[in-house]
Design brief:
The protein is of the alpha/beta class. It has helices at about 15-40, 80, 150-160, 170-180, 235-255, 260-280, 290-295, 300-320, 340-365, 430-440; strands at about 60-65, 115, 120-125, 140-145, 190, 215, 325-330, 370-375, 380, 395, 400-405, 410-415, 415, 425, 450-455, 455-460.
Length: about 475
């Protein structure tokens, strides 16, 4: 036939045959790539390999919603007391603030007393009564910064690396890169004490497959909504119904393999079935000793809610959950202290101090701290100047985050803000630096953790700027 593809041999080596065979080869490579994508290679929950040796295998993120004040917690500024009530020096120029004109801002000293803690002499304020007991586990980063001074874009930025909504969060990227340690529990779990100013999209999976979305656990009632089966449905009957529906799903998948979301749904159904028995047990605290509950602050009304979250977080990472995101401050103003800054920080400190200390102490006692990275911080800090008479405005220009466990060099301080605590000036750390460091500790190279979307190999740390791993705080 005239259209028959010419054979490639020594007697038939010409331009037409070369192009024909090369074209077929390229097409086969493209088909292989598309087949892998469509069959859901990105959807897998199974454990994957790392890019290098990991120092941590799980993360517990303690997010202080609203933005805690760095100058009232971990970044003392004695000059504020000396210059109290005076305007910012002209050298600071015009700063974009949310509710305060920089020209009218007056320096507001902290009412907290700072002291050195632990063998390392790490400095923190008296907001924390118990946390000094684990000071030598903390690496305090005083030089974090970004440019988003509104809550929603700052929340998106600190969680997803972008100030625009819709991108995958750090937790979703983590499970995408590493898979799950557990076959019965989700890889990514969220617990919060109220609504977030950025909404649930803050901790969403964005364009990553749905299998990497967060599962939210509640403190009261059923831990996961709609998980319990009907009372009239026996387990064996439910298993048969699920098997039948899954067989239909897989037949459809074979016929229409271009539907990339289908395998995520299949995996979600299977996971939900297994979670019916494992999830309630994972957050059932009745088997914990009274000593343990007291260590987390469950014996006190003010710390019971966040203490429950922290204790559940330990139980989850113990059972193989990869990323646990906790939120404090969702109810009321939280850490968003536009008024009564000191009084609200005192209240918040009492709510989180004992639970966080108990979490770190308990992880260490159980041999889990070395493999669990604990992170503390908010979407930004607060101004060293006053809003009204006793409040502080949003401040993304210089704020504090700390890390512990999971390969972190404890008892250290990294970076610095200026003499008033307004701007990061030494070893400045942008959000993508934090993300790159977290991924590095998990054994992932941020530049190689990518997902093809809208014609680009997307990544958590974006593709349009440089970032670095903070090796000075890593063992």
């Amino acid at each position: 036939m005239q259209n028959e593809t010419p054979k490639l041999d020594q007697n038939n080596w010409n331009r037409r045959s070369l192009l024909a065979h090369a074209g077929m080869g390229i097409g086969a490579l493209a088909l292989l790539d598309l087949t892998q994508r469509c069959m859901g290679s990105e959807n897998s929950r199974t454990r994957r390999g790392t890019h290098h040796a990991a120092k941590a295998k799980a993360v517990i993120s303690l997010f202080m919603h609203g933005g805690p004040s760095q100058v009232d917690t971990f970044d003392p500024k004695p000059l504020l007391l000396q210059q109290a009530g005076k305007p910012l020096p002209a050298s600071f120029g015009n700063l974009n603030l949310e509710f305060t004109k920089a020209s009218e801002a007056k320096l507001l000293p902290s009412q907290r007393r700072f002291r050195q803690c632990g063998e390392s002499g790490l400095v923190m304020s008296d907001l924390f009564e118990h946390l000094p007991g684990v000071a030598d586990e903390l690496a305090v980063i005083r030089s974090c910064y970004h440019t988003e001074f509104n809550h929603a874009p700052a929340l998106y930025l600190t969680h997803t690396g972008s100030s625009q909504m819709g991108r995958p969060s750090l937790g979703a990227w983590t499970t995408y890169g590493l898979g799950s340690e557990s076959e019965e529990l989700p890889g990514y779990v969220v617990m919060r004490d109220g609504p977030l100013k950025g909404g649930p999209v803050t901790y969403g999976n964005g364009f990553l497959p749905a299998v990497h979305s967060a599962t939210e656990l509640r403190n009261v009632g059923a831990p996961i909504l709609y998980l319990d089966p009907p009372d009239t449905l026996r387990d064996s009957e439910q298993r048969r119904v699920l098997d039948f529906s899954q067989s239909l799903n897989r037949r459809f998948q074979q016929a229409y393999s271009h539907d990339e979301s289908l395998e995520s749904r299949i995996a979600a159904y299977e996971l939900a079935y297994r979670m019916q028995s494992t999830a309630p047990e994972a957050v059932d605290l009745s088997g914990e000793t009274e000593l343990t509950k007291t260590m987390y602050g469950l014996d006190q009304e003010e710390s019971r809610s966040f203490g429950t979250q922290c204790l559940n977080a330990r139980r989850l990472v113990e059972r193989g959950v990869r990323f646990v995101q906790l939120y404090h401050g969702g109810g009321g103003d939280g850490w968003d202290t536009h008024g009564e800054n000191d009084a609200k920080h005192v209240r918040n400190g009492k709510q989180i101090d004992k639970p966080i200390t108990g979490l770190i102490t308990d992880l260490k006692a159980r041999g889990l701290l070395d493999s669990t990275l604990v992170i503390w911080g908010g979407e930004f800090g607060r101004t060293p100047t006053s809003e009204g008479s006793a409040g502080r405005d949003h401040n993304p220009y210089g704020y504090t985050v700390w890390m512990a466990g999971g390969g972190i060099r404890g008892g250290t301080v990294y970076g610095a803000t200026d003499e008033f605590g307004f701007r990061a000036v030494e070893d400045r750390v942008q959000v993508r630096d934090l993300h790159a460091t977290i991924l590095h500790l998990l054994g992932l190279d941020h530049s190689r953790l990518t997902y093809y979307f809208q014609g680009l190999e997307q990544r958590l740390t974006q593709i349009d700027g440089e970032c670095r791993v903070l090796h000075k705080i890593i063992h």
